[in-house]
Amino acid sequence: MIFKWFDERLEIEKFKAKFLRKTFPSHPTFLLGELALFSFITLVMTGVFLGFLYEPSTKMVSLFGAMVPAAYASVVRIDLLPMGLIVRRIHHWSAMLMIAAILAHLMRIYFSSAYRKPREINWLAGLGLWGLTMFAAFTGYLLPYSQFSVTATSIAYFISKSVPWVGDWMSRLLFAGEFPSEATVPRFFFMHVMLIPAALIGLIGLHLVILVKQKHTEPPANKNRKEAQGGKRLIGLPIWPEQGVISMSFYLFLLFVIVLVSTYIPLNPVETYGPPSPGTPVMRPDWYFLPIYGFLKLIPGDLSFSILGGKITPETIGGVIFPGFLVLVFASIPFLDRAKGPQPYMANPLRRPFMTSFGIAGGVFLCMDVVAGYIDVLHIAPQTMIIYTILATLAAGGISFALLRLYNGKRGNDVT
Amino acid sequence: MVERDAGTTEGKAGITRRRFTLGVLVASLLGAAGSVLTLLKVLSPEKQGGGYVTTIRPGDRLVYARGGETGVTVRASSMKVGDAVLVYPSSKASNPANLVQLIRLKETDLKPPTNIGLTDQGFVAYSAICTHLGCTVSWVENQKSPDASYTECFCHNSIFDPARGAKVMGGPAPIPLAQIGVKVTGEGALIFTSDFTGPIGPQV
Q1: Which of A92, A211, A279, A318 has the most crowded CB, counting CB atoms within 10 A?
Q2: Element (H, E) at B88
Q3: Are A161 and A171 in contact (CB under 8 A)?
Q4: DSSP per residue over A247-293, as a string?
Q5: What is the pLDDT along chain A (416 residues), one digit of tens a residue?
């Protein structure tokens, strides 16, 4: 009855036939992007709750007799509310999960070579989503205005200030003046709750529209069946109801895991860090910033020079040039790949020795940078760690390349 | 009469309608971009002369910067050799550039490039703001051999040797921590006697 009333006005049946019958190829790794999307939905929902209660101000107020910044006080009050602490933890855990899912999704795309023609644009859109998510996480760091928040943001402030030529102006634009300034928290709050989520939603939309337009890559196993059927339609599950029900169950299961983890595992204990104070204890950023954090420790202090009036300092190298170089490498991958012509199927990573071993070497390099973040507890000198990093990267790339060549040579496979 | 193929129709001035429209579009886009630049300028406040500019003046008394005794005058007798504390000049605590690490070493351990004239009875003081990325440095005390104690920034493990002018011993810090003169007064308190010997905070 109700359905008919709406259908007569909105032509739902027509929409269903056109979009909801689209097929979604099935492969266990095809849910990673959805995992990121679902984490984002959780983040928005918990974020709305937190947004009602958070106060973006560094004005000093009284909290249990002590004078603390209003932002810090409001977060402590959120933690004391029934459900308050767990919502804040769900928010933070979901952010970590979203970035983990994005990375896993990116690795899936990379190793199955799904970035190849015609999907280069969507690879770039995906990198943009990754960058925006990291930026959202970074602006979220400052908001509780704890000792941890202020230290982390201060480091980022000096890194952005170290950008040659424009750093001075750029850091004042981003941090609304010279950090710590009372204008920084309101600006970060606005970016965190409005600007970045809006950009994320827009870019997610673009990512999905391009996906629908270009169709999903398919497992190579579908090739024969598809050709037998005439080769037009994808082989997989229709979006509604089959794939939709799978996705919804998957999301509900994910929520269950996130709530469970948030219940038992504390995260960002703002009350333990305390409000900003002199003295910086040992603190490390969330895991997704660890490669940059570790890399910063490896750059020797005397490595600074000027080119064309721009000052290159160790901070510039570790905090600007290194991440910039990574972005450049990631962005150029689909354009350096030698495959020509449209590629509708996933590639077998074992048959692509160069790309696969390059990816493994890159992954090992980033992991070694994470280890470099722990040289203080491992008692390794930075110089030694640099040598370890180079050796491990070259060894991982070289050995995996040699093994893959051997594997394909024995089987007589063509490699690409 | 409606011209269907506007692009190829010559106007009286010799330009096509399509080119005219394109020109208007480009001009408006440039104008819009210009206004965005102006807005970006407005959104990045002018320098306040802030950053790390110290307001320490010779004669300022040293007080504890943290812990239960925050704001209490530091007494020379309360620090033994190998101790270090974070201090502020009294009543000037709001400025992070004023944060100083006061260390007591054996007088004979102090070597150049430490400015010995700025030390007194083994008391030596340096800016506590790491020259790498601005975290506050900490004192890593070696109980067994006090002269092996050192100053470290726990953010990215820059290490400074306070007995040798806070020279960088390791890690990414580009320059030493700036020294500042201190002396013990007749009443056993400590006062600053000079300005910082060099720049403080990150050199970016």
Answers
A1: A318
A2: strand B84-89
A3: yes
A4: HHHHHHHHHHHHHHHHHHS--S-HHHH-S--S--------GGGHHHH
A5: 888 888 888 888 888 887 777 877 777 778 899 999 999 999 999 999 999 999 999 999 999 988 999 999 999 999 999 999 999 999 999 999 999 999 999 999 999 989 988 899 999 999 999 999 999 999 999 999 999 999 999 999 999 998 988 888 999 999 998 888 889 999 999 999 999 999 999 999 999 999 988 888 888 777 777 777 766 677 788 888 888 888 899 999 999 999 999 999 998 889 989 898 887 888 899 999 999 999 999 988 878 888 877 888 888 888 899 999 999 999 999 998 877 778 888 888 888 899 999 999 999 999 999 999 999 899 998 889 999 999 999 999 999 999 999 998 888 777 76
| Residue B32 contacts A where some CB pair is shorter than 8 Å | no
Cα separations in angstroms, B194 against A302, B38, B118, B181, B198:
28, 43, 8, 5, 11
Residues of A in Cβ contact (< 8 Å) with B137: 280
Residues of B in contact with A162 (CB under 8 A): 202, 204
Query: B133, A315: Cβ pair inside 8 Å?
Result: yes
First-to-last CA distance in chain A?
57
List the alpha helices (DSSP H) in A54-144.
70-80, 84-111, 120-142
Q: What is the CA radius of gyration of chain A?
A: 24
| DSSP letter, residue B74 | P
The residues spanned by each domain of chain A are 2-345, 348-416
User: What is the token pair recorded at A190?
Assistant: 């606005």
Q: Is the peptide bond before B96 cis (omega within 30 degrees of 0)?
A: no
Tally of CB atoms within 10 A around B26: 10
**B97 vs B180: CA distance, rounded Å:** 12
Q: What ipTM did this prediction achieve?
A: 0.83
Q: Report how far residue B156's alpha carbon sits from residue B173's, in angstroms, rounded to the nearest whole number.
A: 9
Which chain B positions have a beta carbon within 8 Å of A165's beta carbon? Answer: none
Token pair, residue B114, equals 């430490």
The closest alpha carbon to B136, from A269, A154, A71, A68, belongs to A154
Contacts of B149 (CB under 8 A, 6+ apart): B82, B84, B139, B140, B141, B142
Distance CA A350, CA A356 (A): 7
- Return the ∠ at Cα A131 (arms to A129 and A133), rounded to 5°: 70
Q: Who contacts B164 (Cβ-Cβ below 8 Å, separation ≥6)?
A: B111, B112, B113, B114
Residue of B50, B66, B138 with shortest CB distance to A277: B66
Instruction: Name the nearest CA neighbour of A188 among A170, A175, A199.
Output: A175
Residue ranges of domains in chain B = 6-43, 62-196
Judged by DSSP in three states, B99 sits in coil
A399 secondary structure, DSSP code: H
Of A161, A278, A297, which is closest to B204 when you measure between CB atoms? A161
Instruction: Please state which CATH class domain B62-196 belongs to.
Output: mainly beta
B198 contact A CB<8A: no
User: Topology of domain A2-345, per CATH?
Assistant: Cytochrome Bc1 Complex; Chain C (1.20.810)
| Residue A9 burial class via C-beta count within 10 angstroms: exposed 0-12, middle 13-18, buried 19 and up | exposed
Six token digits for residue B160: 């400074």
